[in-house]
Write a structure and sequence with these properties.
By secondary structure, the chain is mostly helical. It has helices at 4-17, 21-43, 46-62, 70-91, 115-126, 130-140, 146-153, 157-186. It is elongated.
């Protein structure tokens, strides 16, 4: 049964498709955190993530008539944000405007309990190939299940599952080595 918020989003979708700019602004406000989060966690660059989010919402504006429901809107936004992040990641691979070491993570609800571990995890995650990194981000940052990830990335579900398994093993091994190196550097 749809919630009141889903009814509001559905009404905003209809109104925005008819040209209501306030309704479109409501849709952007409702989903901008999710879109930005996908781009930022994948790209690790605030300005590029903002560009990706802007492109995604411009594309949404052009395709509003194609969106059928609030669930379809969320799926569509995740898929487009994912693909735009891949595109920008390839385009700006060697160009980083600033390091994000000192900046807090967007949408973080609580302080990091171990900044060293958090930094090492972020660096290790960034070392994964882009498709693998996106699978991990969609699973653990966005909380999507393997079937949803498979649909967004247009991959078989079993490929998503095996990719997750391999990535977690690889991350575990890399983190163990990195943290071991850090521990020995201090003692």
């Amino acid at each position: 049964m749809p919630t009141d918020r889903e009814h509001q989003i559905e009404a905003a979708l209809r109104q925005a498709a008819r040209g209501d700019s306030d309704a479109f602004a409501d849709l952007v406000r409702e989903h901008q955190g999710m879109v930005f989060s996908i781009a930022w966690h994948f790209l690790q660059d605030r300005s590029v993530a903002e560009d990706v989010a802007q492109e995604v919402f411009l594309e949404l504006y052009r395709r509003l008539a194609d969106i059928q429901s609030p669930a379809h809107l969320t799926f569509w936004l995740r898929r487009v944000a994912t693909h735009r992040s891949f595109d920008h990641g390839r385009r700006f691979k060697s160009r980083r405007e600033q390091t994000l070491e000192g900046l807090p993570e967007p949408a973080s609800e609580k302080a990091e309990s171990d900044p060293l571990l958090h930094r090492q995890l972020r660096q290790t995650l960034m070392s994964l190939p882009e498709k693998q990194r996106m699978v991990v981000l969609l699973r653990y940052q966005e909380g999507l299940g393997p079937a949803e990830i498979a649909e967004i990335l247009e991959m078989p579900v079993n490929t998503v599952k095996s990719t997750l398994h391999r990535c977690l093993e690889e991350l575990r091994g890399k983190l163990t080595r990195r943290l071991g190196e850090v521990r020995y550097a201090f003692f």
